[in-house]
Amino acid sequence: MFLQVEGLRKSYTSGEVTTEVLKGVGMELAHGELGVILGPSGSGKSTLLNIIGGIDRGDEGKVTVGGVDISGLSDSQLTDYRRERIGFIFQFYNLIPTLTVGENIEVVAQISQSPLGIDQVLKAVGMLDKKRRFPKELSGGEQQRVSIARAVVKNPALLLCDEPTGALDYSTARDILQLLEHIHKDYGTTILMITHNAAISAMANKVYRVRSGEIVETRINDTVLPAERMEW
Ligand SMILES: Nc1ncnc2c1ncn2[C@@H]1O[C@H](COP(=O)(O)OP(=O)(O)OP(=O)(O)O)[C@@H](O)[C@H]1O
Ligand SMILES: [Mg+2]
Prior knowledge:
binds magnesium ion, 10 strands, binds adenosine-5'-triphosphate
């Protein structure tokens, strides 16, 4: 398995109150699969994704990505792991406002080991003609396209998406999901995506339903629905 999570536990303590956010989570994805994590607000989805992406650390358990047990990495090794292997897409696009579209992609390409071409990824997300624009001159959907290009340019082994369509209207959300589907097919990228929206899980190979820090259901879709045919 390309991604393997076993017995993952995580608690946060503030003052005298300790909250158990992940209570022994297990999941796995094969190389090139698209997985969806589904669950209500506060169930621990982002915490799980952030630990897999090396932004946060678990308290107990094991997370293996491409044969590397990331729970055993030092802080600087974890930074390298994040930089070299992981692409992140968030609900709010986190583009650098003072840089153009092209420059936002370029800063990531520059620190990557085997980046794709900047124009190639801008073309793939349909934003090549807006390369010299600034983020504030773009719509939300366009900014999300740029943030997808920024995550994809490093040619990541694993693309992690935290509610990538959460801030978008219905038809823009479908466009973005179709774009992720193309990236998944064209580049063979393994993708793990969080959503609130059960309808979106139809495009995934595997669906993990999370409730209160536990995986309560694992589903394997034998047939995957193209994003353009999904409705909600
Ligand atoms: N840094 C932190 N310190 C304290 N508590 C935290 C921290 N991060 C998350 N939590 C708590 O952990 C729980 C799970 O949070 P998480 O962000 O993983 O949920 P989520 O499933 O992604 O929710 P949403 O759908 O609203 O984004 C929440 O109760 C949250 O308050
Ligand atoms: Mg979240």
